[in-house]
Amino acid sequence: MQQRTTSLSGLALQKFKTNFWSVLSLGLIIFCGLIALFAYVLAPDNSQNANQMHLSIHSKPPGFKVKMLSVPNEISKEQSLISKFLVGDKNSPWEYPIEQLKFTDKAVIMYPYSSGKELKGVPKKILLTRFPKGSTKSSIEANFVDHRLFILGTDKYGRDLLSRLLIGSRISFSIGFIVVLISLIIGVLLGALAGYFGGVIDVVIMWIINVVWSIPTLLLVIAITLALGKGLWQVYIAVGLTMWVEVARVVRGQVLSIKQQQYVTAAITLGYSHARTLWYHVLPNSIAPVIVIAAANFASAILIESGLSFLGIGAQPPVPSWGSMIKDHYSYIILGKAYLAVAPGIAIMLLVMAFMLLGNGIRDALDVKG
């Protein structure tokens, strides 16, 4: 006979498993996390930042196919497999959408792709020396020409939209983790100190919290970002420095309640240091609501980063970001190509909703008295 668990953690886990939407959200988050981790392995365009531009095939619809000629890169850089996994292929070949090829003794004559409504492209000559030594017509057609499928189409610069979406997921996940880490470190530390010691320390910390809390988050992030400069790390720091106040207030309230418990009084009576009492007896019992806030902050960080990228002060080109992708293509919504902006918008919506539902599920699961 299976023994039923009576521990609080076991009861919380059992309750969480019965929440369909929370379990589904956790699965979606894990799935998106794996996609972000293996983005360059999964992306059809594994060049650095998926930045292969083909203006002749810009804004093509999902399922678009074209014949593509790949010419080896003349500038070769040493790159390890780990580097390719993390930042993409720095030695990606030059790619040319083509209609047909003609061969001479010393060169390949390439006829660029052009749709029927556009002017025909000017033929371009590529010397055979650009290809591996001994390459013939058949070997070039077999090894360097392929029929490329753009599953989600191309953006206004002719880049593969699917690849940009996959690699852009890294920005959302990385800013979520880093922002939550920064907010937890600062918020838990200040909240614990304010609630445990009280007095002047509590007054000063609460004054700082109220000042930061009174400033609109987006305006504070913009101010910090402009002071630190544009870039990913600046955005991480700016968003992290604005999201710790809620954590601090909740931790302070929890510590104020927990420090009145008998086991805390016993620890102090036995002569344990304040640091040990806080670390081993107070904080472990106040961590449950912090986990819920962390999930909510993860979702908020994704939204804030998307908003900053939309305003042009977040991730800078050519780094793919879901917010910057919406910024680049929002005007296409009224031009019959709404998918260019809708696709990253749906990705943001699904990931944020997953974290919010996960947070709600954790909150309900930890409320084991209900």
Structure overview:
With about 375 residues, the chain is α+β, with helices and mostly antiparallel strands. It has two domains: about 55-150, no CATH class; about 160-365, MetI-like fold. Helices cover about 55% and strands about 10% of the residues. The chain contains 15 helices and five strands. It has helices spanning about 10-15, 20-35, 40, 80-85, 135-145, 160-195, 200-215, 215-230, 230-240, 245-260, 260-270, 275-280, 290-310, 320-330, 340-365; strands at about 65-70, 95-105, 105-110, 125, 145-150. Strands 4-3-2-1-5 form a five-stranded antiparallel β-sheet. Helix 14 (about 320-330) packs antiparallel against helix 15. It is elongated, with a radius of gyration of 27 Å.
- The CATH architecture classification of the largest domain is Orthogonal Bundle
What strand order characterises the main sheet? 4-3-2-1-5
The dominant shape is: elongated
Task: Could you tell me the CATH topology label of the largest domain.
Answer: MetI-like fold
Question: Helix- and strand-based class?
Answer: alpha+beta
Number of E-type strands: 5
The named CATH superfamily of the largest domain:
MetI-like
Distance between the termini: 27 Å
Major sheet description: 5 strands, antiparallel
What is the arithmetic mean of pLDDT? 87
- Rg for CA atoms: 27 Å
Which range does the strand content fall in? 5-15%
CATH class of the largest domain: Mainly Alpha
Uncertain segments: none
Instruction: Report the order of strands and helices.
Output: HHHEHEEEHEHHHHHHHHHH
What is the number of helical segments per DSSP (H or I, 4+ residues)?
Answer: 15
Estimate nothing, just give the exact number of structural domains: 2
Helix content: 55-70%
